[in-house]
Amino acid sequence: MTQNRWRPLSGASIDPWSMGAALIAALVILPVVAVIWMALNPVANIWPHLLATTLPRYFTNSLVLMVSVGVLSAAVGAGAAWLITMYRFPLSRWLEWLLLLPLAIPAYVGAYALVDFLEYAGPVQTGLRGLFGWQSARDYWFPEIRSRGAAVLVLTAALYPYVYLLSRAAFREQSGSMIEVARALGAGHARRFFAVGLPLARPAIAAGAAIAMMETVNDFGVVDYFAVQTLTTGIFSVWLESRNAGGAAQIASVVLILILVLMALEKVSRRKLRFHATGRQMRSVAPTPLNGVGALAATVLCLIPFAIGFVLPVGVILSHALDAREGWLNPDLLRALGNTLAVGGAAAVLTVIGALFLVYAVRLTGRALPKQLLPVTTLGYAAPGAVLGIGMLIPLAAADHAVADLIERVTGHDPGLILTGSAIAIVYAYIVRFFAISQGAVDAAMGRIAPSLPMAARSLGQSARGTLTSVYLPLIRASTGTALLLVFVDCVKELPATLLLRPFNFNTLATRTYEAASLEDIANAAPSALLICGVGLVSVLFLARANRA
Questions:
Q1: What per-residue confidence (pLDDT) applies to 312?
Q2: Based on CB atoms within 10 Å of each CB, which residue in 262, 409, 424, 492 is the most buried?
Q3: What is the 3-state secondary structure (H, E, C) of 34-89?
Q4: How large is the average pLDDT for residues 452-463?
Q5: Under a CB-based contact definition with an 8 Å cutoff, are residues 42 and 49 in contact?
Q6: 344 exposure class (CB count in 10 Å sphere: 0-12, 13-18, 19+)
Q7: What does the alpha-carbon distance between residue 295 and residue 125 come to, in Å, rounded to a whole number?
């Protein structure tokens, strides 16, 4: 009898694969559970004080930022994807990939560059004063740079590629016949987009906008630099200034609820949307050439987000880096680079190994518990870094003291703080935060392997571990390599969790950039920021290659 699912361990009541999968899932879920427990059992309950004072302002600012960035990212990303997919105009083939490059720039780097470019002493206002003869800021009006609106602009420029990438794929999968029928019926450019393209691509646009909104909630560098008080800055304020872990956890729980509501709304909005191809050989979309004003308008509209999201930050940071060449030889920069490579590399390797074990165990055993825990482990990616930091500090501190007491009783020597006093806590935070990336890549890759291959290996006497190493790993090598790279790059850019969990005098490229920029020392922040952008650029190039049509 033929079976679709391969379950060689179905006769065992307990097996190491199921136990290992449950342990990995528990470690990934633990920080979120800890946040909820701390919020419900605070040492000092400041919830009434938060509700009466700062929490409404934190919540309002966070909600306005989320909605604004989500709407603008959807408009920019989907609009650019439609133009690139449906039309041919000057630079369109280049812009198809250039529009992805803002993914390489952390949003906080874009914020530093925007302020440096537009502030009173920056080139824009200096040029205006010289051109019109103005003597001081009282002689003219200029928009406030450090504001909520500027934060929306920077975050949108950094996050719209999520919508663009998913929307472009959705538009490419649409039938060219439907577009031609709409054109034959007299539908103009706008009508074809709103009546045909947009409804079919709405699930992809909603998914991309949801990612952008979750990243907005996670952001700390931009809102802190622009002095916008959000839930994330509130977590830092209550924890670091008031030393109230329970209050910080209560704010973090609000963030979790906000994220869960967002995820639920995104799923509900797509639940009844089902679109299918009408034929076996669906004809792809043939781009329409544009000329004259239309071609110029399309080119300019696609160049604007690329210029704001990539050209401006890279240009400003590069100019400062070239002016401060001695900063490249600063020992602190080299130490931050080494720390970044160490913690990011360790977290990437451990995350991919954990995802491989968990996904393989679920497929191997077919048991209900690992299968149910698998989707729950993706919650870490939705939880902001500040939330995970709060969820890890108390459990890791308790484990630290327990281990130290045990070692001291056995050896008579106090080892100090092993977990929270080292980079281990940062690595753990990165694993939890980005586990969903590697898990999704590994699960998709293993799903493409025919069940007959591992079944044949087992019938030839291979063990479960041997089948993983000899059958699965060679076939999913490219996907695991991509996951490794993406997790590493996200670790390099991660700021909130690193700020909360780093030991004393420990800097990564992200924290060094933040510290220097917060002191208005952009020149000293430029080398580390440029290194972060370089690492991100490599990942985007690999991503563009993987998504090549």
A1: 94
A2: 492
A3: HHHHHHHCCCCCCHHHHHHCCHHHHHHHHHHHHHHHHHHHHHHHHHHHHHHHHEEC
A4: 76
A5: no
A6: buried
A7: 32
Q: How far apart are CA 210 and CA 41, in angstroms?
A: 31
| Dist. CA 479–CA 544, nearest whole Å | 14
For the record, the structure tokens of 230 come out as 């959000």
| Amino acid in position 365 | T
Structure tokens given for 204 = 């992809």
Q: Per residue in 149-202, pLDDT tens?
A: 999 999 999 999 989 988 888 887 765 556 655 565 556 666 677 666 677 778
Q: What is the end-to-end Cα distance of the chain in Å, rounded?
A: 41
Return the top range by mean pLDDT from 239-248, 306-315, 421-430: 306-315
The four Cα atoms 150, 153, 155, 156 give a dihedral, to 10 degrees, of 170
Fold of 16-271+306-546: MetI-like fold (1.10.3720)
Q: Residue 265: in which H helix or E strand, if any? A: helix 245-271
Q: Indicate if the pLDDT at residue 307 is higher than 90.
A: yes
The model's confidence at residue 8, banded by pLDDT at 50, 70 and 90, is: very low
- Comparison of pLDDT for 163 and 370, the residue scoring more: 163
The answer to whether the beta carbons of residues 31 and 391 sit under 8 Å apart is yes
Q: What is the pTM of this model?
A: 0.84
Q: Is 375 exposed, middle or buried (0-12, 13-18, 19+ CB in 10 A)?
A: exposed
Q: Say how far apart CA 1 and CA 496 lie, in whole Å.
A: 54
What pLDDT sits at residue 549?
A: 47
**CA geometry: angle 447, 448, 451, nearest 5 deg:** 75
The token pair that represents 484 in the structure block: 């490794």
- What pLDDT, in 10s, does the model give residues 99-144? 989 988 899 999 999 999 999 888 999 999 998 989 888 888 998 8
User: CB-based contacts of 40: which residues, under 8 Å, 6+ apart?
Assistant: none
Give me 509's structure tokens: 């490229």
Mean pLDDT of the chain: 83
Q: What is the pLDDT of residue 9?
A: 47
DSSP letters along 343-366, please? HHHHHHHHHHHHHHHHHHHHHHH-
Q: Which tokens in the block code for residue 232?
A: 């994330």
Q: What is the residue extent of each domain of the chain?
A: 16-271+306-546
Contacts of 185 (CB under 8 A, 6+ apart): none
In angstroms, the CA 63 to CA 71 distance is 12
Query: Are 337 and 532 within 8 A, CB to CB?
Result: no
Using an 8 Å Cβ cutoff, are 480 and 445 in contact?
yes
Tokens read off for 489: 């790059």
Which tokens is 199 given?
């409804």
Q: Is 140 helix (H, G, I), strand (E, B) or coil?
A: coil
Helix axes 245-271, 198-218, angle to 10 degrees: 180
Using DSSP bridges, classify how beta strands 87-88 and 288-289 pair: parallel, antiparallel or unpaired: parallel
